[in-house]
Amino acid sequence: MNERLFSKDEIAEMEKRTLDRLLEAVEAGDKEAAKRIANRMYNEFLSMHDLYRNWITSTLSFIGRRYGDEVLEEAMNEGVESWWVPTVRKFPKGAEGLRQSVKMFAAGLRGHLQPLHIEEDDEKITIQLRPCGSGGRLVLEGKYAGEDAFLTVEKPGFLTYGRKNFPVYCAHEPSMEFVDARENGSPFVVVEPAHELGKEYCTCLIYKDPDKIPEKYYERLGIKKPDNR
């Protein structure tokens, strides 16, 4: 065991951030090395992304199974409020505000490392992850099946958009809309969940005029749509 496993140069390379190695390859003009390191950085981030995705889903599953849907809803709202409300507060205001806010939101979705599909019409921006990099991939990977399955919320309610058998990870979406509407009067984004979660694509809808958000999106949260502002 006195034999060293690594040389000093190998240790120095392991110490470097993958970003620094990528930039070095780019500056050196080594395209093949840059491609290889970019793929390595993607795999490193995806592994960490999925670790935290699985961790939070396991924690939510524990809360729901041990304490029931009511406590799960409280935990979900409080957890979502801790990161989504500060995020929305950073969205810029003014004439260019919505344009920049949509770009910021899309940048956040790109953190799931899956392709985006974006459309715009006169009324709204429509965004889909194809596939969903978090909740959708959990379904596709079979994480809600078998003896180690994550929790599926069985009863229709607030956390499930009124549907039965809703994957617990996906139940953060109603909380996002709820805490945002409570804070700002209307949600920045509303979600149309896929008919078959994971197997089809959920749709994020950002209305250019918040007053044009259909009343049904408020009703499913159990709140009243505010009067036109």
General description of the model:
It contains eight helices and six strands, in the order αααααββαββαββα. It has a domain at 68-219. Helix content is 50%, strand content 10%. Strands 1-2-6-5 form a four-stranded antiparallel sheet. A two-stranded antiparallel ribbon has the order 3-4. The model has no long low-confidence stretch (mean pLDDT 96). It starts with 7 loop residues before the first helix and ends in a 10-residue tail after the last helix. With 229 residues, the protein is an alpha+beta fold.
Question: What distinguishing features does this structure have?
Answer:
two-stranded antiparallel sheet; alpha+beta; about 230 residues; four-stranded antiparallel beta sheet; globular; 8 helices
